[in-house]
Amino acid sequence: MIRRIARWAAVAAGLAVGGQAHATGGSYTICVNFGLSYTDGATGDHLTGSSYHARGTTIRMTRHSDNYTNDFTLDSNGCVTNTFVTSATWTIELVFKATVLGNSIELRKDPAVDASEPIYKMLLDSSFTTVDGAAPIFTFGGGTTPADLSNIMAAAVYGIANRNGGLSGVTYSFRYGGTNCPGSAFGCYCTSVDCTSNYRTVNVPAALAKYKYGILHEMGHAMSDEANGHLGSDADCGGEDDACTGGDVDQGLHRMSSKEYNSCAASEGIAHFFSVLVLDDDTVTDCIIQKHYAPDWDSTGTVTGNESDTFSCEIGVDGVTPPPPAPSIPAVPSHDFLGNYDHGNSGDCIPTGTISENRGTEYDWLRMFWDLHTDHAIDWPDILLQWNLADPDSWNSNGNGHGTSYPAGGMSDAAGNLYLNYQSDYDAAAAWNGTNR
Ligand SMILES: [Zn+2]
């Protein structure tokens, strides 16, 4: 009995659609352009303003006559085409929730701004009337809050679309506004370990929303954490510059060029790597990255000469191969940056003995991952698996030693795992870039 009723209902609905379509129906297409306004990435990246970057984002339509609501997902061109039977008037909103390659991205209000943390929405049209052939294109952006939102969404969607790391079913939750990052106002990824009130979220204050490399850096933390089962990484970013007495100025904590425990340098290095992997993808070989500050590579205490916020992570710091494509790093006589950390001054940052172990720079780890990918053909999903197998959540984060319980040894050991089997390639990249200490 139930089956017969269902079949009758389906036939009746089909007749109704066919009959009315001739009268007033038709189709319409809605497209969304993100007006992007990044301040970084003037060279070396492919993320520029285009409707392409609104792909996967949600359109919510609410019919005025009865408040009927329906959500649609924008296609790879940032558009959606619908048919209709009877013309009606709708409200159209953009919901900052995207679905790309089986993963979701949500852009939520910061709990410090709105305790209920709703997903951001933007009104596109308060009275859109369905007319056959209608094809409005909605664009927003231009330096105000919507621009920040579109900046974040576009970078995250682009990151997933280009390098989802083989992960599926993941929801990447971004929070815009506020300052929820312990010890940093410039954005962070929170695991349950370091930010319990914002479990597993990418926090993007307004300052970070202008930096696509920065947004994707934080997303790189999120992705590596997803790969490691949400266990985080035991990164100690508080130890650097010990035993450097040769007149070099302290680089400060947690910088591209600062001497750090490898637990910090590796965790930051893989996040830096994701940002350049996404933005310098495939056709770009020079690994240009732009940060929100210029590293003081020669440790003089001031940013001088050719020190720039834009630099290459392809060039060896010995300045040999290939030629620097942009204002970059002063040439020093070794391949790895940490190995030259005192820059020829009398003090030696890498003395013999235990203090030389378990130290690195974020820059060296970034270059190691880049070389592993470009010179040894190891792709992002394998690097994420290696990261997981290396157990970054249980590293000896700040000891003076080596072995598989430390980042350098743990990563090498993981590369030799049966499922990866590229330990010799990894060891070569690590040795060249000095991340094997
Ligand atoms: Zn970071």
Question: How does this structure look, described?
Answer:
This protein is an alpha+beta fold. The chain has a domain at 234-433. Helix content is 26%, strand content 19%. It has eight helices and 15 strands. The protein has helices at 2-21, 145-162, 212-227, 262-279, 362-374, 380-389, 407-415, 423-433, and strands at residues 26-35, 57-63, 69-73, 79-84, 89-100, 103-109, 121-129, 137-141, 171-176, 188-190, 201-204, 260-261, 288-290, 310-312, 359-360. Strands 2, 3, 5, 6, 7, 9, 10 and 11 form an eight-stranded mixed β-sheet that branches. It has a three-stranded mixed β-sheet with strand order 4-1-8. Strand 5 (89-100) and strand 6 (103-109) form a beta hairpin. The chain is elongated, with a radius of gyration of 25 Å. The relative contact order is 0.10. The model is unreliable at 1-22, 318-333 and 343-347 (pLDDT under 50). Zinc ion binds at residues 217, 221, 268, 271.
Q: Can I get a quick summary?
A:
The protein is built from eight helices and 15 strands. The protein has 437 residues and is an alpha+beta fold.
